[in-house]
Amino acid sequence: MFKSARLKLTLWYFLTISFVLLLFSTLIYRTGSILLAENLSRLHLRLNTQMPRNLKNLEPQSFNFESDGFIEDLNFAKQRLLFNLILIDLGILAVSTFLAYLLAGKTLAPIEKALLAQKRFTADAAHELRTPLTAIKTALEVNLEDKKINKDQAMSVLKDNLKDIGSLEKLSNDLLLLSRVEHNHQEIKQRTIALDELLDELTNKFQMVAKTKSVKISAKAEHDLIKTDADKLIQVLSILLDNAIKYTPKNGKVQLNFFLEKNKAVFQVKDSGIGISKEDLPFIFDRFYKAETSRNKNKSAGFGLGLSIASEITKSLNARLSVESELSKGSTFTLRLC
Predict the structure, then answer these.
(1) Which domains occur in the chain, in start order?
(2) Residue pair 254/210 in contact by the 8 Å Cβ criterion
(3) pLDDT at 187
(4) pTM of the complete model
(5) With b meaning 16 or more CB within 10 Å and e meaning fewer, what string describes 73-105?
């Protein structure tokens, strides 16, 4: 599809350049013809004025330059001008067509990338939605056919279905949030916040989750006040902390640190978890991407949207999110505010 579109766009570039060249060449030819006629006329007149007196006494028709050579010289000069213009135009068209083909490819590349991303996103979203829906449908169908089902079994089925519905709700909320962030529908509300309060809020928020997994969570700060959008900052750090706890094994550690680097605020979420392979690192901020490692086998693994949301929110904060990781040695996510 994009190959034919590229050729069509190149053709439009070619026709546009050809039209412009034709206009300029016509203008140059007409102007050049007039200038050539004037210059040849002056040259012939100068030659006439410089002739010996005895030749000047002869009959004028004997030295009629227009009949003797003026028109012939003018036509020859016009032909040379036309020939040179055609050669130059052909050269320009050849080079510009090649450049137009390259430009068409460069112009369509981001559109093609966006379209492919949209198709991939639709396919991934459909797949993620289908999984819990299939589980709900299968459970209901199997238990409806079981005439001997008791109240406890029915309650267990309903609880499982409710859990799957919760997953669907989380997925839809994540998709809506991602859409709002990507389309800049969220306002930036900067205010000065106290770091000790922010870190306490985050550690308290995840303390119970970490405790159930026997993971130790701690926070450390070296500065008191910063000015930023607190809600968005908490969103990003919450996603990073949630991921860190999720992929850190029993008796592991998760640290949330803050420090200044060249007068810029820096947050780090460091864990002693299972880590990420070098092959997966370039893609972990892509939507629905799940690393093909033991991270993907984790029972609590989500839909692969968290880090993508964190990345988009980071952009809205005019900040930078990076990661360093090694398999079996943990990961460190660094958020630098600008």
Answers:
(1) 2-116 (no CATH), 118-182 (1.10.287), 191-337 (3.30.565.10)
(2) yes
(3) 67
(4) 0.59
(5) bbeebeeebeeebeeebeebeeebbeebbeebe
